[in-house]
């Protein structure tokens, strides 16, 4: 059985929506979906608001109850029939994310066992056939095939295998 | 540069001493080092005390400030000069262990970056040349060479590459 490793943020969990919610709460400024999808969140903020990004991602509640990226639940459930599925997230950078991420996975993907959840940093440590991720940096030393999941920050990045939606993942792997 | 993945409990962190401390505190019964080193902790307890083991490992403080396995700091520091070092621990089974384990690593191995720490379950997901671990189950589907670190529970387990101490690791890999 081939194995797929799947990233969390911007692949199955939408951290961008949380950024936008909190920014609206704190500064009263709202972004459209189009803006959020076209640029990195940091590029949308003026220089004197950049500090908020770090403040947000290190806040205990930032990773709690993030919204799902559309379609991921349905497609992963179908992939699960034909592949070994591992969730592999570079969570170690944000210790505050560890328990919320685990709770989030338990809620939205209850059939994925704790044995198949990986919190890491450098993803070259992952032994899988495919890695679905929004950061090409993780593909450089990865043993399998990197599949770039389109996110606001990677529109201009070159990579040979790219998917824009979970429907694209279904077409590619099922 | 070759890569070594190193387990935590019973390889660099001594959970057995914590078991013994808490058991003495709760039941007034003390074990000798010889007893602790020769049998699984559960084999030392009478049937009506077995429930304590689960109670302990799921307690928030169980993994806090565990003692170091002798020699691990010195040898890992030397290995670090010649190998990529990753810490790979099946921490997902015990969500209460995640933050204490991260804090413990920061305290005792401050030079190991967050990028090289992996909390996982099934270690066949680990891509490394060597895995130093006290559980042979992790070697079955591991891509590299498993190195069995002797612990009280694995004396009778057969495995071709075994080390009894960190000095043995030094002799094997340096």
UniProtKB/TrEMBL annotation, chains A, B:
The active site is at residues 7, 9. This is 5'(3')-deoxyribonucleotidase. It comes from the Bacteria. Belongs to the 5'(3')-deoxyribonucleotidase family. One of its GO terms (biological process) is pyrimidine deoxyribonucleotide catabolic process. GO terms for molecular function: 5'-nucleotidase activity. The lineage of its organism: Bacteria, Pseudomonadati, Bacteroidota, Sphingobacteriia, Sphingobacteriales. Transmembrane segments: none annotated. It holds the Pfam family NT5C.
């Amino acid at each position: 059985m081939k194995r797929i490793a799947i990233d969390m943020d911007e692949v199955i969990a939408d951290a961008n929506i949380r950024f936008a919610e909190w920014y609206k709460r704190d500064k009263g400024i709202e972004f459209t979906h189009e803006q959020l999808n076209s640029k990195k969140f940091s590029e949308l903020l003026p220089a004197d608001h950049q500090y908020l990004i770090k403040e947000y991602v290190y806040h205990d509640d930032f990773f709690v109850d993030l919204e799902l990226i559309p379609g991921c639940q349905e497609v992963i459930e179908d992939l699960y029939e034909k592949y070994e599925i591992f969730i592999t997230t570079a969570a170690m950078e944000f210790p505050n994310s560890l328990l919320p991420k685990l709770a989030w996975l338990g809620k939205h993907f209850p059939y994925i066992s704790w044995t198949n959840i990986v919190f890491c940093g450098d993803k070259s440590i992952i032994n899988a056939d495919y890695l679905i991720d929004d950061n090409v940096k993780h593909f450089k030393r990865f043993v399998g095939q990197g599949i770039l999941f389109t996110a606001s920050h990677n529109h201009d990045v070159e990579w040979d295998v790219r998917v824009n939606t979970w429907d694209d993942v279904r077409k590619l792997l099922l």
